[in-house]
Design goal:
The chain contains four helices and no strands. By secondary structure, it is mostly helical. The radius of gyration is 13 Å and the shape is elongated.
Length: 70
């Protein structure tokens, strides 16, 4: 079962969802509530490496704009 494409897709989507939620949770504690645009931008990220990089950066930057490069 773990080898099935469907299973792997479900696992990958779960990892993406967790990464997005972690960024939003930590970012909210550091920068305050994100704008709707920021939430949409994060929710549209489908690259796990990008989410991991943002999660690392959230501790190094001082705003949502700086985090997302806007």
């Amino acid at each position: 079962m773990k080898e099935s494409v469907t299973y792997q897709e479900i696992v990958e989507e779960g990892r993406l969802d967790k990464g997005r939620k972690d960024i939003l949770r930590i970012g909210t504690k550091r920068f305050g509530k994100p704008s709707r645009k920021m939430r949409q931008t994060i929710s549209q990220i489908s690259d796990l490496d990008r989410l991991d990089a943002l999660l690392d950066r959230v501790l190094e930057v001082s705003s949502w704009n700086e985090l997302l490069g806007e």
